[in-house]
Amino acid sequence: MKPLKRTLFALAMTASAVAFADQPIIGLITKTDTNPFFVKMKQGAQQAADAGGAKLLAAAGRYDGDNATQVTAIENMVGAGAKAILITPSDTKAIVPSIKKARDAGVLVIALDTPTEPKEATDALFATDNFKAGELIGEYAKAAMNGKPAKIATLDLAPGISVGVLRHTGFLKGFGVKDGDPSIVCSQDTRGDQAKGQTAMENCLQKDPGINVVYTINEPAAAGAYRALQAAGKAKDVILVSIDGGCEGVRNVKAGQIAATSQQYPLKMAALGVQAGIEYAKTGKKPSGYTDTGVTLITDKPLSGIDSKDTKFGLDECWGTK
Description:
This protein is 46% helix and 18% strand. By secondary structure, it is α/β, with parallel strands linked by helices. Helix 5 packs parallel to helix 6 (162-175) and helix 7 (194-207) crosses helix 8.
């Protein structure tokens, strides 16, 4: 190679290395990599990273509740030079010491979807108002009962997980009852799983066959509950409500299996989180507090006094397509 060409080649390689070194690294850690909700979240994060010239590192727990894998992911991302880490914490308390270590090392940490306990353990939270999501379907179910006595089954997430607690208590607030009310005849944990949702509903029907309102933590649990209700010949006698607003869940609303669902927008959560991470990497500016990424009640059976959108809107917007 001639001297001039060698010089130009060296300059080009140096410029490339500098450009690569300037590329901010953003980490995304979700609860699992199989749940469609988190698949959509990862899609939003990757789109925002590509648009902002950042490198995305993604990791996930092996199952919902897998704190150990999330701890390892934080350590690996800090070691890889991540400027910001976005996380949907599986164990909202146990993950806090690892988050503190990352923040002490100068890494921006943003919670997505699920707040840590305490919320101040992260720099910021980008999420659905899960209490409001529960409240919306509680108000809908109450209105749909039209004054008839209710026998309520709650198919919940798992003890101690904040997103499940917020949705559950929001639903009860919207329906106008509190934990311990005699109208709540059965409560079961499902971990948001369809098979566990079906088993939970079967158990509840054995306990009280007269159940006429079913709250579910998410749409996979709702799908399981519907199967159990259908097998028992009670699907038409029950108002089944849920939360998430994924495309499959909205299709189940359209099919009449779910009366109403609260739609949230994980793609938007992740995209906003990545954008904030890139800004921090470039300017040092940190986001703070809570950013509400929105929630919409989706139903094809609108009720007077209850603000909602139909399933056409729900399918156009499912999980944040913009």
